[in-house]
Write a structure and sequence with these properties.
The model has no long low-confidence stretch (mean pLDDT about 95). The protein has an eight-stranded parallel β-barrel with strand order 1-2-3-4-5-7-8-9, surrounded by five helices. By secondary structure, it is α/β, with parallel strands linked by helices. The chain has 16 helices and ten strands. Bound molecules: 5'-deoxyadenosine.
Length: about 375
């Protein structure tokens, strides 16, 4: 019963798989609201009401991977491939810094060429220099070698996001090509490597995938816990019409957006309840399902938001899923809207702060 689980949480007792399952299955409006409220309470107690910002720059959509769900997979001929120039990235970084965002994220398709690796290294250095070391730098560039992770860390990056997509290797193999380039084990090993190298490590999953069960989602939460993850970024799976997964599971598109959104929100809430001191980002994909979806993510326990600051002319080419918000927004427009909404909900924006994961600092060996 949900009431028993909420009671266990209040008494500070550990949660087992069955308890997590109960949280995820709390579908009735009253039960759903109770789970969200509990996560909000825990977030406030542990982290206060600050929301940290990471300005997101989508550096390039050139990608070596062919993930069945993703709009920028290499076999999608329907998009124009781009790579921003160094100057364009640095101008956006400068804007982020002037807006006092505190941190930025450089994200791109997976590219392991030596030119790209060197480009990212130069960009990280230049961003560190232009902001006098004030901007926190997060990278999200997929699976790379240990040497590359080390190079980028040495240049000044300190956080890395790499979603495991699903903690179940079997489900992973259903939504990716079955070849060595798409290996669940490699991805898990990359997460370990990132941690060993010294990054704050973020991972996440897609919620509501075809073939995914509630028990898979419970396993995802346990995976975050067992991997001792510092940051979580997860959002609903949203169909991209030009992908194999959209065709493999056509009945899936009949699923109600509202159900998909609510399940994702309860997953965020359950993660906050289970792991009170990690950073959790509210995903842009939540907003693809409902206009205020990202705000709801914050109310469900997320404490980080990543406003997209990518130049408008590139946004159309970085559509991971259908209905991605902000496609036509001019530079600062997305941000203005986000700021107004966060403040209206009573949260404080963490200007000029890195807003590191408390969990990361807690797990550092004391010297
Ligand atoms: N729906 C939701 N999220 C998606 N991503 C890629 N395609 C989709 C989709 N159709 C997410 C993946 C990836 C991140 C960059 O975008 O989780 O790790």
């Amino acid at each position: 019963m949900l009431r028993d689980v909420l009671d266990r949480i209040d008494r500070g007792l550990p949660l087992g798989r069955q308890d997590l399952r109960t949280l995820l299955l709390a579908e009735s409006p009253a039960d759903h609201a109770a789970v969200i409220a509990k996560a909000g309470e825990i977030r406030k107690r542990q982290l206060g009401n600050t929301v940290y910002l990471r300005g997101l720059i989508e550096v390039s959509n050139i990608c070596a991977k062919d993930c069945y769900y993703c709009g920028i997979r290499k076999s999608n001929p329907g998009i124009v491939r781009y790579q921003m120039s160094e100057q364009e990235v640095l101008e956006e970084a400068e804007w982020i810094w002037c807006q006092r965002f505190g941190s930025l994220v450089l994200q791109g398709g997976e590219n392991t060429s030596s030119e790209f690796i060197a480009l990212i290294e130069r960009l990280v250095r230049a961003i560190r220099d232009l902001s006098h070391g004030e901007l926190g730098i997060t990278l999200s560039m997929g699976e790379q070698s240990e040497a590359t992770y080390r190079r980028w860390l040495a240049a000044g990056a300190h956080r890395y996001l790499l979603r495991i997509e699903t903690s179940d290797p079997k489900l992973y193999s259903q939504i990716h090509p079955r070849d060595p380039a798409h290996s669940w084990e490699t991805r898990r090993d990359c997460l370990r490597r990132l941690r060993d190298v010294g990054y704050q490590v973020g991972t996440g999953v897609m919620i509501g995938l075809p073939f995914q069960t509630v028990d898979d989602l419970v396993d995802d939460l346990v995976f975050f816990q067992e991997m001792d993850i510092d940051m979580i970024g997860m959002g609903p799976y949203v169909i991209h019409h030009e992908t194999p997964l959209a065709k493999m599971a056509p009945e899936f598109s009949a699923r109600k957006k509202e159900e998909q959104l609510c399940l994702a929100l309860r997953m965020i809430a359950a993660a906050r309840i289970l792991l009170p001191d990690v950073n959790i980002a509210t995903a842009t994909a939540l907003q693809a399902l409902r206009d205020d979806g990202r705000d709801q993510g914050i109310q469900a326990g997320a404490n980080v938001i990543m406003p997209n600051v990518t130049e408008t002319r590139y946004r159309r080419s970085y559509q991971l899923y259908d209905n991605k918000p902000g496609l036509d927004d001019a530079g600062g427009e997305t941000w203005d809207r986000i700021r107004t909404r966060i403040e209206a909900l009573g949260y404080t924006i963490g200007y000029n702060q890195w807003g590191d994961s408390q969990h990361f600092h807690r797990r550092q060996p004391k010297s």
